[in-house]
Amino acid sequence: MDIIKGWVNEIRDMGGIKFIILRNKKGLFQVTLPKKKVSHEIFSFVDKLSKEDVIVVEGSSQQGKSRDFDTEIIPEKITLINESETPLPLDPSGKVKAELDTRLDNRFIDIRRPEILAIFKVRHSLLKHARDYLSNEDFLEIHTSKIISTASEGGTELFPIQYFEKKAYLTQSPQLYKQMCMAGGLERIYEIAWYFRAEQHNTTRHLNEATAIDIEMSFIDDEEDVMGILENLIHTTLKGVKEDCIAELNLLEVELKVPEVPFKRLTYDEVVEMLQEKGYNIKWGEDLGTEGERILGKEMENQGYEYYFIKRYPRNKVFYLQPEGKYCRGFDLDCKGIELTSGGQRCHEYDTIVERIIEFGLEPENFKDYLKIFKYGMPPHGGFGFGIERWLMEMLNLNNVRECILFPRDRGRTTP
Ligand code: AMO
Question: For residue 344, which atom of ligand 1 is closest to its CA?
Fold first, then answer.
């Protein structure tokens, strides 16, 4: 006797034969009720069912006759566990198209759709392989506080919170803690966690609450050591996802390409020159901007690269990056015109980091706890922050980062 439990996805009544398409986490199953083979009681019971009722079917499985299902089950017993109200706020079969907002308002039903569930199965596989890779490379998984007292990525993007008598903020990156762990001798660490950014942008690639894979590693020669870990992490993870998620990738109609290592490397200077040649208005020292990144992405795609590094940025990129003349040892990794990762070699000498804080118009006094870690034996180190939702969006050719997180937080959304 086989037992399957799940939701009524669809009911088809062909007169002499009825079908229930049952759906659960494993996929869709066909329950076949030929009038001549099942009891009269079961045959008429189907008429009482509605879409999205939760049922248990007991019966015998056999090779399916339909193109769409490998097996079918002929029921001996069907139990209605819980009824669903009608009409539904959203059609879980996806036949009636809904706006993203309506889908997100009813996310618990939206994720009943196999192609939406597939995104989160791929996400699971991605994180599993990323963890395995980092663990094999001797990185220690850590978790740092999400409540902070100082900005690490520029002061304008913090969510303030009232922390008893004090003002505190939600973290915008584990940056300063990652570096503290280097001072603490942990040598190689990673964190997979949330961060919060009070950015006003309401775009298809910004979230106000996002997740990232952050790493930090000590005793590096330069930022190339960090970039090596990143490109191998991507290569290994994509290979793993491709093997694990054949059905999900098929459902999402994604042909996953595993990029060869080493990835293409461009310098900031080369990128600016290329953009200027294409008529894009950018001066040396400026951010590439969304449009600049997009133009570069097109050019790289024409040259056959999905993933590419941009390195040797101007020294005004971020204060904690190691300066080198008018440049710094920071890099970005972009994929098809979208930034997925920022990273680099950090300052590790006390005097340099103090100078950098001042250079950026920040107040060393506000960084007292952070500055302390440079005084008592800080090794050379570097790392990166890798946005999970953006990576998934690019990997699966989705057009909105909100698709890649279960319950997105954006400028207008704090529910569900
Ligand atoms: P950065 O600010 O570039 O670097 O962030 C790292 C990566 O996180 C993702 N990301 C976002 N994804 C969705 N919505 C957002 N609002 C958002 N903001 C950032 C991007 C981005 O590349 N401390 C450094 C990292 C480091 O040097 O280790 C940092 O936070 O994919």
Answer: 27
